[in-house]
Every structure is written in structure tokens, then in C-alpha cells.
Design brief:
The protein has 762 residues and is mostly beta strands. It contains 4 helices and 44 strands. The longest helix is centred in the first third of the chain and has 19 residues.
Length: 762
């Protein structure tokens, strides 16, 4: 149900649209046609090797997707999975090809040249900062698969997502608002959660200066993300309870589930300013984005009641002869406040008629990231203001890149890219005990850790269209990695200060060669082969993030070596009426795979470590068909299906896992976007996502399906229709997960979700 504040906010957004409609006639004289836009990405045709496997999305390809956030735009692309657990989830991790959804440092995301990938933390904490770009401002997206271009570091082992927004060429206003609602029923929770989005943008071009400002507000509720089960107890003084739910965990152990995290409230405000400037043939684009995010987990649910009907929040209890412990901390409450600022500058222009220069610089700062947690639920008799505060200070990154594009090297069809790049990352995390968690009071350190990494690179990429049939790509990337200023806490109780231990600095240099060749015997057919070596260097968290919190322990590994990958792709493509059909055969062999493993201990404590797996081998076959006017006029199809076999082939420390499936890698994945253009103004579409089940652990012991903690297969169907009125108004209605399928990817996927969207351009 919408509360009063949300009703008022939604009413304000509708009023804004109505007001915009009312003033449209006054503005008609100034703007009678759709604005002309320029997308920088369309000009960068030398970016990747000519035979690099890729996929391109335009606005027309998105009409069958219920788009609420930026992740939605790419989640139907081949061999790509987004683990967005609910609308507004900050942990929208991405996996590509042979890299699973928790190997977040193996994929890269850029928006107008600005990095959105978060190469400071891993797993759910390492999701790209999708909210730094709004879905409503996206003009096109290109997805590159694998590390086959020297332009990108080894963090492109899975692939690269390149988002481009439009640069306005005349005055334009856009406003849209969306409402979404889902019903969810699992374990002891059965309720409806809702949310809404409001977006406004203004753009104009005054002389040689383009200006764009946007504001995006996302206010959303989630279904419970964690369901808690009791630990063992030997206590004799037990409280008799009812309401606990008996069920298996992912390893088929019988558990009694006693509560959940309840609804999480998320509120994200994003402000964006872009200024483009033309200096003759030169262009510059300043990109400033500020994010203000709040996440509140303040309504955990206990399923347990005692004989008097009172809710039991913690303690040693017994139900139907089964004794268990409900830890006090599990149903505590927490709030996170996070403020981030990103500033990027991109410049491009010709030095000569055949040489173009491009530079990109970016500074990303976590201005504030603080999580305040209680040790008990406020309704628990054990509750006090005592709690814990997690705080990130001096955290962020900076990057700078310069490239030269050569078009005329004395040989027809021969192009060359030369470039240099610098990336520097810093992460500092402090955990405090707090006498008053609600005010964020820092009482005493519990743990501290952090450090810095740098990656400097020089690269060269040659692309040669030899003749009408053959093309060739050759590249090399030299990288110099260094970690420094690493530390973690090891307090000595006999000293007055809180003691930290310094970690010795490390450095390493590697060269990654690239090769591709393409052959087109006739106009309709094309064959291409790409080979790429890549090194994925460890990130700050993997090297240094070592902490002890009240319910979690993390053990870092400062001696980690880079992941060492050899990647191959063989493509067969045929042009058909209305589009293309493509088959990709790919193979990846990666050594020293940095794997984050966690174990849940009795009492609710989780322990995480970073341990390298000696070698993983992945083979896959990808079928892709993108066809307009399939079978009948106005019916467009984007379909892909991939079979992936990812296996642990070598692991000396623990050979028992050799031959096992690599975690979170379904053997089968598929996506379908089916769009029927009823008229020039009205579209109707169907979408589908499919995945077979997988494992979440290297030992492959988690074989239970349909339970919290499982890695379920799923088939999710969606519907979408949009009607564009002649006065600039568009109305969209949709539903995801039509069948209301309940599935888990450790945490539960959303239930059936309804969407309504109203937008106006003038």
C-alpha cells in the first residue's frame, strides 16, 4: 500500500505531467519536430577489433522491455545475466560469458566514457553503479564480449557494456513517471510491495554549447531478501513457540525458519549535468553525476509466537520437539546512507586529416557510505541502542586515458589505435561498535582495513580491412600493476591505540596480445575468429579487506596473483531478410581464479575468504537471431540461447572439487524479445528470460531447488505495450513474471510485477 508521503509524491509527478501538457501549445512554435540528437559512440568506429563479438541496442530494440532502471536495458542480451533482486537494488551484479554474476571485476561498464564498474569490492558489493546514469537518458548500448581488444584491461574477461546518451541539438524537455507493484509470498511473508520513479530532463543547444540536466528519483520497496533459520542449542531453559516454518536449506538440511528481513525501503535521487562544447571540429563533454541513496531495513519479521501469543524475537526455543536458537542480531534493523559524485571529461578532435585524438578523465568519490545496525530488534526485550556502524572513508577512483586514431597509414583499409591509461583505486573501511547506532555514534573501532591499487597501461590495436573478403586485427596491451598502503587491524589490547598491520606493497607487469581474423566469402556469410590473452589483477577488497563484524568475518589475501585467461571465439554469421543469424563458439581457460567463498556458521555468523582456484575451463555455444518483419510485417524478434559448460579442471589445494561445475553458471540460458508494431504509434511486446539451475558452491553440494539459498532455474515471461499519442504523450503498461514463478538466486527473484508509465516530450 502507498503511504501518504508516496501518494503525495506520485500526485506531484502526475501534476507535473499535466502542467507540461497544458503548456505544450505555448511551446509548439519553438519546437514542432523531434529534436536532433548526436551520439558520440556512433563516431568511434575504430574502437574494437573488427572481429570482436558484439551486440548493439538502440531505443527501438527496448520497446518490449519493462524498463525501470538502467540494468533492465541490457538484461536480455546474449550470455549476459543481471542479478537485480528487486527494483532499486544497489547490488545489481552482472555476469558475462564464462564469468558468473559474482565475478563483478570481470566486466566493465562505461557511460559516455565514464566508468560505472565498481572495481573496489567484489560479489554483491561490486555491482556497477548503474544509478549514476538514468535509463531514460540512454540513446544506445553496445555490448562487447570477451577481452579481444587491446583498448580494454583484463577486467573485460567477461565483456564490456558501452552506454551512450544523446547530446541535445535543440531545446527539449522530457518528463516521465512510473509506478510498479509486486505481490510476493514465501515462507512467512505474504504482502504487496510498491514503488515509483520520476524523471525530468532539460536540454538545449546555444551556439556551440549543448546543455543537459536531468533529475531521477526512484522510491521502491523490496520483498524480503533473507530468510533466517535457527541454529543448534544445548540450552535447557527453552521457550515453547509456534509459527516456525520447517523446510530444507540449499544442501537439503532440515531447518526451522523463524523470520525474514522484511520489506526494504530504497530511495535514490540522481542529479546529472552534461555540458558539451564544440571548438570547430573538436568536441568536449563534461559529465557530472551526483547520487544520494538511502536504504532502510527497518521492518524484519519474526514468525515465532509463545503460548501467550506474544512475538518471540530471539532466544533458545522449542517447536514440535525441535530445539533451536534464534540469534538476537538476526532480526536487528539497519539503515544505509550513501552519497557519490562522479565527474568525467571527454574530448575528441582531429590533429590532422587522418589522425584523431581522444581523451577521457574521471574522478569518482564516495562522499559518504555509512551503515548503522542494531544488535537486536527494537521490539525485542534484549534491545538497546548498542549497535554497529560501518563507514567508508577516502574511497573512490580516478582514471585518465588518451588515444590516437590513425586512418591513413599508407595502406588502404588500415587503421591503428595507440593509447595509454591510468587507473587508481582506494578503499578504506572502518567498523565501529556504537553506544547509539541510530545516531551513527563511533564508540570504538572493531576493525579497520583498506589499501590502494594502480594500473597503468599502454596499448596498440591495429584493424585492417585487407580486401572485400578479409579483415585482420592485431593488438597488444602492456600493463603495470601495483598495490600499496594496504593495512588491516590486529589490535593489541595492551596498547592504548587501535593497532593496524601494514601489508607489503606488490607489483607485477604483464603483456596481453590480441588477434582476430574475419572472412566474408559472399555477401551474406561471414566467419571470424578472435583470440585474446588477458590478466585480471586483484582488486582492493580481495587484497586488503579484512574485518570482523558482529555477524560476518572477512579474510583478505594480499598475496593473490592475477587471473590469467586465454579466450577464443569463432563466429559464423549469415544475413537473412530483415536481420542476421549468428553462432558463436567460445572457449575460456582461466588460471588462478580468485574465488570468494563464504560459509554460514551456527548462530548466524558468516566467514568469507578469497582463495584462488587453479584452473577453470569454459566452453560455450551461442545462437543469436535478430530479425525484423519475421514471418509477417511489423513483427521484430531478438532471440538468443547459449549452452555453457564451465568446469573446475585443476585445484591442487583441494582436488576433490576437480571436475565440478563452476558456481552460478547455468548450462542453458536464453532470452526473447518479440515486438509487434500494431501501428506507427502502438507497440505490443512479449519478453522471456530462461535459465537452467546451477550450483552456488565449488563442492556442488547445494542441490536443493525452490528454497532460500538455492540457485534455481527459471522461466520468466513479461508483457509490454506502449501507445504514443500525437501530442508527445506516451502511455506504457506491462507485467513481468506473468506466471508468478517463485525462484531463488540465493535470494528470491521478484514475484509478478505490474508497471505503468506515463511520459511526455516537448
Amino acid at each position: 500500500m502507498l503511504n501518504n508521503a508516496r501518494r503525495a509524491s506520485l500526485s506531484l509527478e502526475i501534476a507535473l505531467i499535466i502542467s507540461a501538457l497544458a503548456c505544450s501549445q505555448a511551446l509548439a512554435a519553438e519546437s514542432e519536430s523531434i529534436e536532433e540528437v548526436v551520439v558520440w559512440g556512433e563516431q568511434s568506429n575504430q574502437r574494437a577489433a573488427t572481429s570482436h563479438p558484439s551486440s548493439l541496442l538502440t531505443q527501438q530494440d527496448l520497446v518490449s522491455i519493462n524498463v525501470a532502471t538502467t540494468e533492465d536495458v541490457v538484461k536480455f542480451e546474449p550470455s549476459l545475466v543481471i542479478r537485480r533482486r528487486f527494483i532499486g537494488d544497489s547490488n545489481g551484479t552482472m555476469g558475462m560469458r564464462g564469468s558468473n554474476m559474482f565475478q563483478t571485476s570481470r566486466s566493465m561498464v562505461f557511460a559516455d566514457g565514464v566508468p560505472l564498474h565498481y572495481l573496489l569490492q567484489s560479489r554483491w558489493n561490486g555491482a556497477p553503479r548503474w544509478t549514476m546514469v538514468s535509463a531514460s537518458e540512454i540513446a544506445q548500448v553496445e555490448v562487447l564480449y570477451g577481452p579481444f581488444s587491446a583498448e580494454f584491461s583484463g577486467n573485460s574477461m567477461g565483456g564490456v557494456v558501452l552506454i551512450e546518451s544523446a547530446i541535445p541539438q535543440e531545446r527539449e524537455f522530457h518528463v516521465d513517471t512510473s509506478y510498479f507493484s509486486q505481490s510476493f509470498d514465501a515462507y512467512g511473508f505474504d504482502d504487496t510491495v510498491t514503488g515509483h520513479k520520476a524523471f525530468f530532463s532539460y536540454g538545449d543547444k546555444i551556439g556551440d554549447t549543448s546543455v543537459y540536466f536531468s533529475y531521477n528519483r526512484l522510491d521502491s520497496e523490496s520483498q524480503p531478501q533473507t530468510f533466517y533459520y535457527g541454529g543448534g542449542t544445548s540450552a535447557s531453559n527453552l521457550t515453547t513457540v509456534t509459527g516456525g516454518i520447517a523446510g530444507n536449506d540449499e544442501r537439503s538440511n532440515l531447518r526451522t525458519f523463524f523470520g525474514d528481513t522484511g520489506v526494504q525501503d530504497t530511495l535514490t535521487d540522481n542529479y546529472k549535468l552534461k555540458i558539451g562544447q564544440e571548438f570547430g571540429q573538436w568536441q568536449a563533454l563534461l559529465n557530472i553525476a551526483y547520487e544520494d541513496r538511502f536504504n532502510g531495513a527497518n521492518s524484519p519479521n519474526s514468525y515465532l509466537t509463545d503460548g501467550a501469543g506474544n512475538t518471540v524475537w530471539s532466544g533458545n526455543v522449542i517447536q514440535n520437539g525441535v530445539a533451536f536458537n534464534a540469534p538476537t542480531s538476526r532480526l536487528g534493523v539497519s539503515e544505509q546512507e550513501r552519497d557519490s559524485l562522479s565527474v568525467g571529461l571527454r574530448m575528441r578532435g582531429p590533429i590532422t586529416e587522418s589522425i584523431v585524438f581522444e581523451a577521457n578523465v574521471n574522478q569518482f568519490e564516495v562522499l559518504r557510505d555509512e551503515t548503522r545496525s542494531s544488535f537486536a530488534n527494537p521490539a525485542d526485550s534484549a534491545y538497546s541502542l548498542a549497535g554497529q556502524v560501518n563507514d567508508f572513508g577516502d574511497t573512490g577512483w580516478s582514471s585518465a586515458e588518451a588515444k590516437l586514431y590513425f586512418d591513413d597509414l599508407g595502406v588502404d583499409g588500415l587503421g591503428l589505435i595507440l593509447g595509454a591509461r591510468h587507473d587508481a583505486y582506494e578503499l578504506n573501511m572502518d567498523v565501529y561498535s556504537s553506544a547509539n547506532y541510530s545516531t551513527g555514534e563511533f564508540t570504538a573501532f572493531t576493525s579497520r582495513s583498506g589499501g590502494e591499487t594502480q594500473l597503468n597501461a599502454l596499448f596498440a590495436q591495429m584493424n585492417w580491412d585487407v580486401n572485400a573478403q578479409w579483415d585482420l586485427g592485431l593488438g597488444a596491451r602492456w600493463e603495470s600493476f601495483e598495490s600499496d598502503n594496504g593495512y588491516f587491524s590486529r589490535d593489541d589490547a595492551t596498547t592504548p591505540q587501535f593497532d593496524v598491520v601494514s601489508v607489503p606493497k606488490t607489483s607485477r607487469k604483464e603483456v596481453s596480445p590480441k588477434f582476430s581474423v574475419g572472412y566474408q566469402p559472399v555477401e551474406q556469410w561471414r566467419f571470424a575468429y578472435a583470440l585474446g590473452k588477458a590478466y585480471r589483477f586483484p582488486i582492493v577488497e580481495e587484497l586488503f579487506s579484512q574485518y570482523s563484524a558482529y555477524n560476518a568475518i572477512s579474510v583478505a589475501n594480499p598475496e593473490l596473483q592475477p587471473e590469467d585467461g586465454l579466450h577464443q571465439n569463432l563466429m559464423l554469421e549469415r544475413d537473412v531478410a530483415g536481420g542476421t543469424v549468428r553462432v558463436n563458439l567460445f572457449q575460456e581457460t582461466i588460471k588462478d581464479v580468485i574465488e570468494s567463498q563464504s560459509e554460514n556458521l551456527p548462530g548466524g555468523l558468516s566467514v568469507r575468504t578469497f582463495i584462488p582456484v587453479d584452473e577453470i575451463e569454459t566452453r560455450g555455444v551461442e545462437f543469436i537471431a535478430n530479425i525484423d518483419d519475421l514471418a509477417i510485417d511489423n513483427l521484430d524478434v531478438r532471440f538468443n540461447m547459449v549452452y555453457t559448460d564451465s568446469e573446475i579442471v585443476k585445484n591442487n589445494p583441494d582436488p576433490s572439487i576437480e571436475g565440478n561445475d563452476y558456481p552460478r553458471m547455468p548450462q542453458w540460458r536464453g532470452n526473447l524479445l518479440l515486438t509487434y508494431h500494431i501501428s506507427s504509434q502502438w507497440d505490443a511486446g512479449l519478453n522471456m528470460q530462461y535459465a537452467s539451475d546451477s550450483f552456488g558452491r565449488n563442492d556442488n553440494t547445494d542441490r536443493e531447488d525452490g528454497v532460500y539459498g538455492a540457485q534455481d532455474g527459471f522461466t520468466r515471461l513479461g508483457l509490454k505495450t506502449t501507445y504514443n499519442f500525437t501530442n508527445g504523450v506516451a502511455l506504457g503498461l506491462g507485467v513481468d513474471n506473468v506466471t508468478d514463478e517463485l525462484a531463488y538466486v540465493a535470494h528470491p527473484w521478484p514475484g509478478r510485477t505490474y508497471y505503468a508509465n506515463l511520459s511526455y516530450d516537448f
